[in-house]
């Protein structure tokens, strides 16, 4: 029987504690947004000492980065599934937009964390890397459409992909606005889909 203090047992306990801390931070994010994720609140939620958070994860910036990494992984699952589906450029672009909208609707705080990330250099860099990766896949879908004649030949795939991502991101971000700038996101996405379809089709 392995000793309770064996390296493997200790490693599992450290890993479990780290995951519990990040779970607590995610739960706080879901309950109250980014401002709710403080180290004392995480300490209470995870029922661990503050020093344990520093030992297992690090500072608040490191904790936010860990939460952002989970959001990045979740977003990649949504988007990769969308890009894996075959279809015309229009169908693939619309599929990607629908997947991103589903991610925003089903995981609103994770979406907000990626759309409006904390001012943590490493998190900003990782999120920028994901954006470049996903925009590259979107550009490839448009590029394929240009090649097979289902998309306009005059489109710059990379520039168009960046514009489409920025537009969808902006529309989805309206969901957390209040007052005159809060809109029916589904209605706006439907209008976006119509305009994009017209804009992508060959003349």
Automatic annotation (TrEMBL):
DNA-binding region: 38-57
Classification via PROSITE patterns: HTH_TETR_2
Entry annotated with the keyword Iron-sulfur: no
Record keywords: DNA-binding, Transcription, Transcription regulation
Matches recorded under Gene3D superfamilies: Homeodomain-like (1.10.10.60), Tetracycline Repressor, domain 2 (1.10.357.10)
Single GO MF annotation: transcription cis-regulatory region binding
Any Pfam family: TetR_N
DNA-binding keyword on record: yes
Domain HTH tetR-type: 15-75
Domain of life: Bacteria
Protein name, entry field: Putative TetR family transcriptional regulator
Species this protein is from: Gordonia malaquae NBRC 108250
């Amino acid at each position: 029987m392995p000793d309770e203090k064996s390296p493997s047992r200790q490693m599992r306990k450290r890993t479990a504690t780290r995951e519990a801390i990040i779970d607590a931070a995610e739960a706080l994010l879901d309950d109250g947004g980014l401002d709710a994720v403080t180290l004392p609140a995480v300490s209470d939620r995870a029922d661990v000492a503050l020093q344990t958070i520093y030992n297992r994860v690090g500072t608040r910036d490191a904790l936010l980065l860990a939460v952002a990494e989970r959001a990045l992984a979740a977003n990649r699952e949504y988007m990769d599934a969308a890009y894996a589906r075959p279809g015309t450029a229009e169908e693939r672009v619309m599929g990607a937009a629908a997947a991103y909208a589903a991610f925003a609707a089903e995981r609103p705080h994770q979406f907000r964390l990626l759309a409006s990330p904390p001012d943590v250099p490493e998190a900003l860099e990782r999120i920028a890397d994901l954006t470049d990766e996903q925009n590259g896949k979107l550009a490839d879908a448009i590029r394929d459409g240009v090649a097979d004649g289902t998309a306009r030949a005059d489109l710059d795939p990379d520039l168009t992909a960046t514009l489409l991502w920025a537009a969808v991101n902006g529309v989805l971000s309206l969901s957390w606005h209040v007052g005159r700038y809060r809109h029916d996101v589904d209605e706006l996405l439907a209008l976006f889909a119509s305009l994009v379809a017209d804009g992508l089709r060959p003349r």
